[in-house]
TrEMBL record:
Name by which UniProt lists this protein: Lipid-A-disaccharide synthase-like uncharacterized protein
InterPro entries on file: Lipid_A_biosynth_N, UCP028440_lipidA_biosyn
Key words of the record: Membrane, Transmembrane, Transmembrane helix
Annotated organism of origin: Microvirga subterranea
GO CC field: membrane
One of the Pfam families matching this protein, by short name: LAB_N
Keyword set includes Nucleotidyltransferase: no
BP GO terms, sorted: lipid A biosynthetic process
Transmembrane segments: 23-41, 53-73, 79-97
Gene Ontology molecular function terms on file: lipid-A-disaccharide synthase activity
Residue span, Lipid A biosynthesis N-terminal domain: 27-98
Alphabetized SMART domains for the sequence: LAB_N
């Protein structure tokens, strides 16, 4: 039984890693690497700050990886990937909009304080 399971697992991994691997699969792997890199960026920023932070780069990598994964989903005609990424990309863009709004508000407040002082 274990021999059969081992053989079947070997065939399964051969199928997904070798037999079905094409340019789109390579693109999908790169998309996942870009998407996953955001966690490395977030971890490094948090370690430097010695607290949990989410840097702007996290959101840009999220958008890049999300768009790449969305393209992959369309190429593979996978509705699960397509729906998941469309919603996620909207959230990532919205976070950048909120960050920009906060930065603009801080600049305006600093300008007001500069004129008063």
């Amino acid at each position: 039984m274990l021999m059969r399971l081992s053989h079947d697992l070997g065939l399964y991994f051969y199928d997904i890693v070798v037999a079905r691997f094409d340019l789109w699969a390579a693109f999908g792997v790169v998309a996942q690497l870009v998407f996953g890199a955001r966690f490395l960026v977030q971890w490094i920023a948090s370690e430097k700050a010695e607290r949990s932070v989410v840097p702007v780069g996290f959101w840009f990598l999220s958008i890049a990886g999300g768009l790449m994964t969305l393209v992959y989903g369309f190429a593979r005609r996978d509705i699960v990937i397509i729906l998941g990424q469309v919603l996620s990309i909207f959230i990532y863009v919205r976070n950048l909009m909120l960050i920009a709004k906060e930065a603009k508000s801080r600049r305006a407040q600093a300008a007001i304080e500069g004129m008063e002082g």
